């Protein structure tokens, strides 16, 4: 007979006593269970005690999380969080440096537990820590010279405890004084400071900027880009990551009118070239967190283009009209131009109209009207002028080449530039906020100060080349744009390290090559639509689905490392989840860092029987998406979120590292529950494997026409004399 659902068998440790095996009744109040444990060891004042996990997180057991206790868990009887918080509050004020250091070390460790954190904060512990940071550094200034290691450790543990306590979101960031901000900023501004202190200080500054508008203004006054740059020139990637995170936070929270000014400062300080030299091209791999921060910086930089992208051209603005005149002048540079004043107004208008037509504008009489659509607005005109001035030979060649062709085969430069700018903005998602999970940065955009404009210059030349290869006419304009988009997207997926490398990738992706790729893909997806083939597909589809199911379950058995997202992404914790080989239990547990390879089952403390799973929900139906307002608004995070619901009001919440892992896990969990696998990945895998299987089965029928209808069944023979009787 199975044990009652509410009974959990655990081991409980106690200092200076033998461990006990015990059955915990989850229906009983936790205080009654603790009293029972204390009575077993003859300990008085049970209200001063609590239970915590003896392994892994060491978090306290509370009424809220007690349902997470699993059979076989090892617990420890320890001092209650309130008592522990009170003792530590007193110990960190000790006059003994050694005692103070040990107390701060314990505080830094315990502050990760929200139960302890709440008790310590109730004792006004945050204020005590900020006072220690503000005044303690001055108080121990003299001791610093003779006890530098001790002083550095003390400050490091103080800042670590502060970061962990604030991370729980119990206390508002708006409560901190200017003196505290100045002190934290001074640690960042010092040329020689302990790495751990610098790391915590950068994390605090970033959180201040992201969580409070008032603190953003104060931090922005204390920290300059020039003071952050030296930290990027070091060799510690973690410090570089935190530094870029602070720059991103300042960038993200800056008012619209300040962002361009800040971008100009970043350009003056040569931030891009420093990142390229010391981060991207450094002789070490870029970790996920650094990749995310580079991606955020890339997105924020491109978002500076949004203002021009959404600005319509004013046909009456002479300065804007002069840009169009400049495009005409560079392209045609008519010798007679100085004498134009002598010609009639009508003659000049006629000449301008003819030239604007050659430049490929839709509105030949008033080209300014072409730039009234947003997006791309004035950004398209900016790109055209940049191309004309910085790649003048290529610009003149393209314009003159097309103006001398037959009308039906000319590539309209003006119209192409406008549509291309719009397309590139869509590809780079200009104007969208950065995703909280994406790591998709492109090294080539860090190789040039005007990377978007250079990107455009390469792509407009590609468009002209593709137009010629396709022998396109004006009716084929949209087809050409689709091919160019495919060429650009395919080249970007290879992550070229420079713009020149991107250009060479495009050279290999000619229209002919794109046709070959499309034909190959079409062969994999189509061509097998006849009735016999469809019937064969229907017959073998269950085998393929079973194969996909086994692959998904095998991947769940291997397991995946998930990230716990919170308000400070750099301090994220990792956790690992995997399915047991017999497909009956999910093992999961917290990790200190991202693992290399698989994590063994025995190192994952928590278990969830598959039989207990009630449902799998995704997206906005997930409990953790309903709880977190900031995450709820982020479309990409929503698309990666899923939760396992089990027991009564219990859930295991996930945010997949990418779309592929999301599909693997949702498919695998649905397969375990006997439900259909509905992900895009399953559909793609099914199409690919079905196509391959069909091709293999039809190898012997090459060049044989398969009829749409089955051949007729012949009439029965008049006699069966031809049958050979084996008996």
UniProtKB/TrEMBL annotation:
Name of the gene encoding the protein in the UniProt record: ELMO1
A GO-annotated cellular component: plasma membrane
Native source organism of the sequence: Loxodonta africana (African elephant)
Pfam families for the chain: ELMO_ARM, ELMO_CED12, PH_12
Keyword Membrane: yes
Molecular functions (GO terms): guanyl-nucleotide exchange factor activity; SH3 domain binding
Key words, A-Z: Apoptosis, Cytoplasm, Membrane, Phagocytosis, Phosphoprotein, SH3-binding
Stated name of the protein: Engulfment and cell motility 1
Classification via InterPro entries: ARM-like (IPR011989), ARM-type_fold (IPR016024), ELMO_ARM (IPR024574), ELMO_dom (IPR006816), ELMO_domain-containing (IPR050868), PH-like_dom_sf (IPR011993), PH_domain (IPR001849)
Keyword Plastid among UniProt keywords: no
GO biological process, one term: apoptotic process
Superkingdom of the source species: Eukaryota
Subcellular localization, as worded in the UniProt entry: Cytoplasm; Membrane
Predominant location category: cytoplasm
Coiled-coil annotated spans: none
Location of the ELMO domain: 319-492
Cited function: Involved in cytoskeletal rearrangements required for phagocytosis of apoptotic cells and cell motility. Acts in association with DOCK1 and CRK. Was initially proposed to be required in complex with DOCK1 to activate Rac Rho small GTPases. May enhance the guanine nucleotide exchange factor (GEF) activity of DOCK1.
PROSITE patterns named among the record's database cross-references: ELMO
Native organism taxonomy: Eukaryota, Metazoa, Chordata, Craniata, Vertebrata
């Amino acid at each position: 007979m199975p044990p009652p659902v509410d009974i959990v068998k655990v081991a409980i440790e106690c200092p200076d006593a033998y461990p006990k095996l015990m059955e915990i009744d989850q229906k009983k109040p936790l205080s009654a269970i603790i009293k029972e444990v204390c009575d077993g060891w003859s300990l008085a004042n049970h209200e001063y005690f609590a239970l915590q996990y003896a392994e892994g997180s060491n978090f306290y057991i509370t009424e809220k999380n007690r349902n997470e206790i699993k059979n076989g868990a090892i617990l420890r009887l320890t001092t209650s969080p309130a008592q522990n918080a009170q003792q530590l509050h007193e110990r960190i004020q000790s006059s003994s440096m050694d005692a103070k250091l040990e107390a701060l070390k314990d505080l830094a460790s315990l502050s990760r537990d929200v139960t302890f954190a709440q008790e310590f904060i109730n004792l006004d512990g945050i204020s005590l820590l900020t006072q220690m940071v503000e005044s303690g550094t001055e108080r121990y200034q003299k001791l610093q010279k003779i006890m530098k290691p001790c002083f550095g450790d003390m400050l490091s543990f103080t800042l670590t405890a502060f970061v962990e306590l604030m991370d729980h979101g119990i206390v508002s960031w708006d409560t901190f004084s200017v003196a505290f901000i100045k002190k934290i900023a001074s640690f960042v501004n010092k040329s020689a400071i302990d790495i751990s202190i610098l790391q915590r200080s950068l994390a605090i500054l970033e959180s201040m900027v992201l969580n409070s508008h008032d603190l953003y203004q104060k931090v922005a006054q204390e920290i300059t880009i020039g003071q952050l740059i030296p930290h990027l020139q070091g060799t510690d990637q973690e410090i570089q990551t935190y530094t870029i995170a602070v720059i991103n936070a300042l960038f993200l929270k800056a008012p619209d009118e300040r962002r361009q000014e800040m971008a100009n400062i970043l350009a003056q300080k040569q931030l891009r070239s420093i990142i390229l030299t010391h981060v991207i091209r450094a002789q070490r791999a870029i970790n996920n967190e650094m990749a995310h921060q580079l991606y955020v910086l890339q997105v924020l930089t491109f978002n500076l283009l949004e203002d021009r992208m959404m600005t319509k051209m004013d046909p009456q603005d002479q300065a804007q009209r002069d840009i169009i005149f400049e495009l005409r002048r560079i392209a045609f540079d008519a010798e007679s131009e100085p004498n134009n004043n002598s010609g009639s107004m009508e003659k000049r208008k006629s000449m301008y109209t003819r030239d604007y037509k050659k430049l490929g504008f839709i509105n030949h009489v008033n080209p300014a009207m072409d730039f009234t659509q947003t997006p791309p607005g004035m950004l398209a005109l900016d790109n055209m002028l940049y191309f004309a001035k910085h790649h003048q030979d290529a610009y003149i060649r393209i314009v003159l080449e097309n103006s001398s062709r037959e009308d039906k085969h000319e590539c309209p430069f003006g119209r192409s530039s406008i549509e291309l700018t719009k397309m590139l903005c869509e590809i780079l998602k200009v104007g969208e906020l950065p995703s909280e999970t994406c790591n998709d940065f492109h090294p080539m955009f860090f190789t040039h100060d005007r990377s978007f404009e250079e990107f455009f210059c390469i792509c407009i030349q590609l468009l002209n080349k593709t137009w010629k290869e396709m022998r396109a006419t004006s009716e084929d304009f949209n087809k050409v744009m689709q091919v160019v988009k495919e060429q650009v997207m395919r080249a970007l997926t290879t992550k070229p390290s420079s713009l020149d490398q991107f250009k060479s990738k495009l050279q290999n992706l000619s229209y002919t090559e794109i046709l070959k790729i499309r034909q190959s893909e079409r062969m994999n997806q189509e061509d097998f639509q006849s009735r016999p083939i469809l019937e064969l597909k229907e017959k073998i589809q269950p085998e393929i689905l079973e194969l996909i199911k086994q692959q998904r379950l095998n991947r769940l058995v291997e397991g995946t490392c998930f990230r716990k997202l919170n308000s400070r992404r750099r301090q994220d914790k990792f956790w690992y989840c995997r399915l047991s080989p017999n497909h009956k239990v999910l093992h999961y547990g917290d990790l200190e860092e991202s693992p290399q390879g698989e994590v063994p089952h025995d190192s994952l403390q928590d278990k969830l029987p598959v039989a207990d799973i009630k449902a799998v929900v995704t997206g906005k139906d997930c409990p953790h998406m309903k709880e977190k307002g900031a995450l709820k608004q982020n479309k990409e995070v929503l698309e990666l979120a899923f939760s396992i619901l089990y027991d009564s009001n219990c859930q295991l919440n996930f945010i997949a590292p990418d779309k592929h892992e999301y599909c693997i896990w949702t498919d695998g969990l649905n397969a375990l529950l006997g439900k259909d696998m509905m992900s895009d990945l399953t559909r793609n895998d099914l199409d690919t494997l079905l196509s391959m299987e069909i091709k293999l089965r039809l190898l012997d029928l090459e060049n044989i026409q398969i009829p749409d209808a089955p051949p007729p069944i012949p009439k029965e023979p008049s006699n069966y004399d031809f049958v050979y009787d084996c008996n």
